[in-house]
Design goal:
By secondary structure, the protein is α/β, with parallel strands linked by helices. It is built from ten helices and twelve strands. The chain folds into two domains: 147 residues, 3-Layer(aba) Sandwich (Rossmann fold), CATH 3.40.50; 107 residues, Dihydrodipicolinate Reductase, domain 2 (2-Layer Sandwich), CATH 3.30.360.10.
Length: 269
């Protein structure tokens, strides 16, 4: 029986190449396609040769439809606009769509939800086991503490990251809001500058730090009079995100249409 075929979008990027390496090392998946943007040097080349190794028999294409139509799995760490376009194709192909892209707006998320009526979509702002455990712990702590504990989420990433707060920080904020029984959109404080006045009780604050080559650090701080609780996750190797995406791709086999996240994959819900 042939293994499920995987297409990697954004194949030449750091995450794309890590994903390709993990698929090639897997005994449950096979490399079936690679997509890059039009005009990229890799387009038309054998994927293995483009990566500086032996030929793999997979040609890099800029035609996402051509690559995705016969695929069983698409793993996508690209940009919000590109991912939404890919979701339309995965819905048509009834393929599993594993999404690690972050920075979606509400209209883009609505399109992904619509695609999930036809395809298995597994989307997470962070694919790591540790972060998803942190999300669940954040929910539980927020549920146990009252609003007198101020919640602050501090995230640090490399200087090339283009969105803020990070997808992981927003996952943590959603978990804290869920634990408190409120909507994050109504209590999020995502920017402070100048004379802001006293902190509003019940708000969930976000701080984004950018610098150097930091892979990812996230702190959730619960602060009250006389004490603080700090939950922290530190990532030092991007491969953990690629491994999580592969785990999601394998988990999604046979699941049918729907929108899922890594807590579903890891059995944390």
């Amino acid at each position: 029986m042939e293994l499920p075929g995987v297409v990697i979008t954004g194949a030449s990027g750091r995450m794309g190449q890590m994903l390709i390496a993990e698929v090639l090392a897997s005994d449950k998946l096979r490399m079936a396609g690679a997509v890059e943007r039009p005009g990229h040097d890799w387009v038309g080349q054998d994927l293995g040769a483009a990566m500086g190794g032996k030929a793999l028999g997979v040609t890099v294409t800029d035609d996402a439809l051509e690559a995705i139509a016969p695929a069983q799995v698409v793993i996508d760490f690209t940009t919000p606009d590109a991912t939404v376009a890919h979701a339309e194709l995965t819905a048509q192909a009834r393929a599993i769509h594993v999404i690690g892209t972050t920075g979606f707006d509400d209209s883009q998320l609505a399109k992904l939800e619509a695609a999930g009526r036809h395809a298995t979509i597994i989307r997470a702002g962070n694919m790591s086991l540790g972060v998803n455990l942190l999300v669940e712990l954040t929910r539980q702590v927020a549920e146990a503490l009252d609003a007198e504990f101020d919640v602050e989420i501090v995230e640090t990433h490399h200087k090339h990251k283009v969105d803020a707060p990070s997808g992981t920080a927003l996952m943590l904020g959603e978990a804290a809001a869920q634990g408190r029984g409120v909507l994050l959109s109504e209590v999020a404080d995502r920017g402070r500058d100048g004379i802001t006045g006293a902190r509003k009780t019940g708000d969930i604050g976000f701080t984004a730090i950018r610098g150097g080559d930091v892979v990812g650090e996230h702190d959730v701080i619960f602060a009250s009079e006389g004490e603080r609780i700090v939950l922290r996750h530190i990532a030092t190797d991007r491969r953990l995100f690629a491994r999580g995406a592969i785990k999601a791709a394998i988990w999604g086999q046979g699941k049918g249409p729907g929108c899922f996240d890594m807590r579903d994959v890891l059995g944390l819900k």
